[in-house]
UniProtKB/TrEMBL annotation:
Belongs to the glycosyl hydrolase 28 family. GO terms for molecular function: polygalacturonase activity. GO terms for biological process: carbohydrate metabolic process. Residues 1-26 form the signal peptide. This is Pectate lyase superfamily protein domain-containing protein. It comes from the Eukaryota. Keywords: Glycosidase, Hydrolase, Signal. Pfam families: Glyco_hydro_28.
Amino acid sequence: MASLPLLLLAVSSSLSLSLLSTPAAAAGVFSVADYGAAGDGLRYDTAAIQATIEACAAAGGGRVLLPSPGSYLTATVHLRSRVVLEVAPGARLLGGARQRDYPPESRRWYVVLAENTTGAGVTGGGEINGQGGEFVVTPNPQKNIMVSWNVTGDCKGDECRPRLVGFIDSKDVRIHDITLNQPAYWWCDNTMIHNVSIFGDFDTPNNDGIDIDDSNNTVITNCHIDTGDDAICPKSTTSPVYNLTVTNSWIRTKSCAIKLGSASFFDFKKLVFDNITIVDSHRGLGMQIRDGGNVSAVVFSNIKMSTRYYHPSWWGRAEPIYITTCPRHPGYKEGTISDIQFINITSVSENGVFLAGSKHGLLRNLKFKNVDLTYKRWTNYTGGLYDYRPGCQEMVKHRTGGMMLEHISGLEIDNVRMRWSRGSLKGWDVDPLLFRPSTVDKLSFHDWQSLDVSR
């Protein structure tokens, strides 16, 4: 089964529907059953759901209820301002698997789509399911091959698949107490995402959990994300991203658990990631700055994680922390990364920390305080490689370092422990620190240790 959960804050033509007769709605709750929804999972309920939404919006807002039990098959439905979609516990909203179920423009391929709304949301305790398994052409334990709807030329490659939930150019968004399951692909201002569970197929690419694209003042709390691609991924495609807080969450991913970029045309500023558990991910905390945007004032704190190797077709080489900036293409501007703090971090990883700026895009003023890094190999994938993808130098053969440093001005190490569990695995050839002095300056080490804990 393939799944792609995705909440994308970004940018549909409304479906043209004639409203059915409008039954009375009790206390602002409008049931789709009153508008003709079958809820059998076989017949499309799109018209009934959209009619309920329009009636709710015309009444000044409220909740559109998908009652339980029921499986409601739908093409894209469009939320309106002050309308909250409530999927009751035991109910499911199922996304259609046909290209004609979605708008012509690929950027608007969502099961639930809100554009230019205020106060719209999703809740209820039930499930929104993208039927991602229907989009797998060839199942592969390393990386599934997905269907591609690129016949119109509006998109390319395996990104030509629908997403689950999208809020575009919207504000005061509230998403809570909902399960997002089996998406087929991967929110703008003042967004709250709380108690959301996201389950995506572990072998499906472009299967992000939550993408925060060009969105500000976002709070994500108490979320559980288990998916194949990046789990929480701020992107700055058309405008800056600032004031993002992520707390009290659990993540497993075959890619990067928390990643800024790689779409990074504008700045990222004032981001906080606190009290997060990361399990068996290909990367832990990452930044891929490739398009000239700058990053500043980011705090990672109280994080426990384990990172491991997966097949090299996935970006990443088991780095617990991966901070990079370089031009995506020759001639691109190089962004800088500055004032980044890692506080109270514990990891068990199959590779070291990778900190690589570029000649005109330095990493500045990085601080590691109370950090415990355990290095241990337990898979048989090839080590000795640094992964710069996308762009830059791609995959580069290199000795493994507890920390590998390039193009840095200002690195403070305070109470950092490196613990090496070397075991008997061949190829585990490591150094505590690797760097070229000509590219690194202003280093400060206080209470730093590198210890062998087993042989």
